Amino acid sequence: MPGVPDVTPSEAFAALQGDPGAVLVDVRTDAEWNFVGVPDLSALGKQVVLIPWQVFPSMQVNDHFPEHLRRAGVTAESKVYYICRSGARSLAAGQAAQLAGFPHAINVRDGFEGPVDAEGHRGTVGGWKAEGLPWRQR
User: Fold this and answer.
1) Which residues of 107-133 are buried (b: 16+ CB within 10 A; e: fewer)?
2) CA end-to-end span of the chain, whole Å?
3) Could you give the 3-state DSSP secondary structure of residue 76?
4) pLDDT tens digits, 27-66
5) CATH number of the domain at 6-133, please?
């Protein structure tokens, strides 16, 4: 298995725009989707797939993750871009997806909010929001 490559949020957005079969899976928690926001793919005629990698509040790994991917219409042929807050959970989810038969897993580096800045805030130095990509409150 080749591993899960990293792309920037802008590269992921361009790939989602250029490939009708490409999918964006946001693996953050329901609380994060509700309070921080979600990527908005409506301009591409798509919706982000929301499947938590870890279940809030216990943060245990979602044992049904591959099944949820299948239910969302993801196939072994799909190019799937995984995004989380900063890129760590999405990498783990992509690795697990590959082991479960979804070989085209790509990690969105820096995730939705990116790393913390000098003041300890996210969303300003890297990630989907900082790159100015479309997003919305849920």
Assistant:
1) bbbbbbbbbeeeeeebbeebbbbbeeb
2) 35
3) coil
4) 999 999 999 999 999 999 999 999 999 988 889 999 999 9
5) 3.40.250.10
- Looking up tokens 């996210």 gives 122
For residues 115 and 86, give the distance between their C-alpha atoms in angstroms, rounded to a whole number. 6
Query: CA–CA separation, 46 vs 13, rounded Å?
Result: 11
Query: Where exactly are the structural domains of the chain?
Result: 6-133
Alpha carbon distances (Å) from 131 to 44, 64, 74, 105, 123: 17, 32, 26, 22, 9
Share the mean pLDDT of the chain. Answer: 95
Q: Which helix (H) or strand (E) holds 67?
A: helix 65-71
Residue of 17, 15, 37, 11 whose CA lies nearest to 26: 37
